[in-house]
Design goal:
It holds the Pfam family E1_dh. By secondary structure, the chain is α/β, with parallel strands linked by helices. The chain has helices spanning 11-36, 51-58, 74-79, 84-91, 125-138, 157-169, 197-202, 216-231, 261-268, 272-280, 284-307; strands at 66-69, 115-118, 145-150, 173-179, 182-183, 186-187, 207-212, 236-241. The strands form two sheets. A six-stranded parallel β-sheet has the order 2-1-3-4-8-7, with helices on both faces.
């Protein structure tokens, strides 16, 4: 794992990053409660504990860059600037949602902000991002497309097809593996042979690194370097070692079945919000203030979602390509 010296960070930047991670944390907690209360249908996958990956990577992008996510994608949407009230309304299946209530948690899209969508099929963000990057190159643009995926997608063949084409065609794409140690209940070591996905990417001539995904500053530093290279035609893969503090989804207990309590507690001591606050010296008062602001924004988002109308039958025939 690459562990560069963490760069100095000014207080304002650190506070902004902390605020975004706090917003994601509170949003995920509210989404989980919404599922328990029957407001969020289907299921919900929260990324509590993984906030630093989204904020560090996406915070280094420019507005015209784009992002594709997977089934655990609320953090990526919020980090890309999707309004929390519109995202919560989408989870509630309401007309004011970013996908007009038709996509839900695993198919939320905000094209205007460069958030090209969450995708439920394992690994499906990878080839789509490769195609977006090809389109950018054909159009003479150096906009970067970032594809997020989990360690459970590492053995999907489409990853290697995409790495091959990205390297051959020198595409402005970055593949980000959020390695949280488990694909549902399967430990990464039980499913993936060899030294890891970064080494596999290097075999294609793709620049690749494995970094500490709990340290938002380390993620941001790597992102800035990789994005600069991608704009110049050097595609990249970043493996972020992180951890989900909760279960895979609502039907999966947080610990006690396939991972023990001690393991979870060990990772919780490296909570990304705590890591940033300690490194940047934010102090308890500022951290509490930023957390309170995030809590209020999420409370307002839940209220907005609750007031938003349910799509009527006519909505079924809208947005259909004929």
């Amino acid at each position: 794992m690459t562990t560069p010296t963490r760069p100095a960070v000014d207080r304002r930047t650190a506070a902004a990053m902390y605020g975004t991670m706090a917003l994601i944390r509170r949003f995920e907690q509210a989404a989980y409660r919404g599922y328990e209360q029957g407001e969020v249908h289907g299921t919900v996958h929260v990324g509590i504990g993984q906030e630093a990956v989204a904020v560090g990577m996406i915070g280094a992008l420019r507005e015209t860059d784009s992002v594709l996510s997977h089934h655990r994608g609320h953090a990526h949407a919020l980090a890309k600037g999707v309004p929390p009230e519109r995202l919560m309304a989408e989870l509630y299946g309401r007309s004011d949602g970013v996908s007009r209530g038709k996509g839900g948690s695993m198919h939320a899209t905000d094209l205007r902000r460069g958030f090209l969508g969450t995708m439920a099929i394992v690994g499906s963000s990878i080839p789509v991002a490769t195609g977006v990057a090809l389109a950018n190159k054909v159009r003479g643009r150096d906009d970067v497309c970032v594809a997020f995926f989990g360690d459970g997608a590492v053995n999907q063949g489409v990853l290697y097809e995409s790495l091959n084409l990205a390297a051959l065609w020198r595409l402005p794409v970055i593949f980000v593996c959020e390695n949280n140690s488990y694909a549902i209940t399967t430990a990464v070591g039980d499913a993936t042979a060899g030294p890891g996905v970064a080494a596999r990417a290097e075999a294609f001539g793709v620049q690749a690194e494995t970094i500490d995904g709990q340290d938002v500053l380390a993620v941001r530093e790597a992102a800035e370097r990789m994005i600069e290279g991608a704009r110049a035609g050097r595609p990249a893969l970043v493996e972020c070692l992180t951890y989900r503090f909760m279960g895979h989804s609502r039907g999966d207990p947080a610990h006690g079945v396939y991972r023990d309590k001690e393991e979870v507690e060990l990772w919780q001591r490296r909570d990304p919000l705590r890591v940033l606050a300690e490194h940047a010296g934010l102090g308890d008062d500022l951290a509490a203030e930023l957390t309170a602001e995030a809590r209020e924004r999420v409370r307002a988002a839940v209220e907005f979602a609750g007031r938003s109308p349910v799509p009527g039958p006519a909505a079924l025939m809208e947005d259909i390509v004929k």
